[in-house]
Amino acid sequence: MSRRCVSTFAKDAGIQLADEPAPLFQLLVLCMLQAKPIRATVAVDAARGLFEAGLTTPEKLSAAPRSQLIRIFGAAGYARYDESSATRLRSMSQLLIDEHSADLRTLRNTAPKSLQVFDGVGPACATMFAREAQGVWPELAPVFDKKALQGAEKLGLSQDPEELAALVAGSTELPAAAELPADALVDLPTFAAYLVKVALGID
To answer: What is the DSSP letter of 6?
Structure first.
């Protein structure tokens, strides 16, 4: 098996994830883009394009012209859902400002379900957010979404989240037939993202 990129999708998009308003917002933006039926790498490029343009907070994104978002999406190859995503991201940003003080941490106690208050965030998107955020919101762990479990199956691993988490904790040995880069097990978000990339065939 070729060695796949071992990092979270948040890192791939240039997000320095922490329990702080800006990076959590950026993660939700990324997940909303990835939740569309489009290649994950294209969604990552689209999110990175937004952040490199300085649209890193709900205030900045909601104030940005819709046309600017569409141009950024086009440059990233995220053209099929550019207009609807631009609308929903600006709407999400404004609602986050108006009702949650621009801070997703106000929804932490009931996450990930509470994230579905935003248009464009369904169960799959909310779980995707939890998968990446479980490192900074550890009460969510262990989170291995449907695509991560598909990757686990592909590698001959258990599809039980608790058993997968035990591999990261070192309390369970890796099956002899399974091949993993050592750094894939550095933490839960990295391992879960690695499994997703295995499922998607991302090298």
So the answer is: -
Are both 47 and 14 inside the same structural domain?
A: yes
Asked whether 36 and 79 are in contact (CB, 8 A), the reply is no
**What was the pLDDT predicted at 176?**
72
38 with 87, same domain: the answer is yes
Name the pLDDT band for 128 (thresholds 50, 70, 90). Answer: very high
42 pLDDT exceeds 50? yes
Q: Collapsing DSSP states into helix, strand and coil, what is residue 146?
A: helix
- Full residue range of the structural domain in which residue 150 is found: 146-200
- 128 plus 159 within the same structural domain: no
User: Is 88 inside a domain boundary?
Assistant: yes
Residue 66: partners with Cβ closer than 8 Å, 6 or more residues away: 86, 87, 90
182 phi-psi bin (left φ>0, alpha ψ -120 to 50, beta other): alpha
Is the pLDDT score of 197 beyond 50? yes
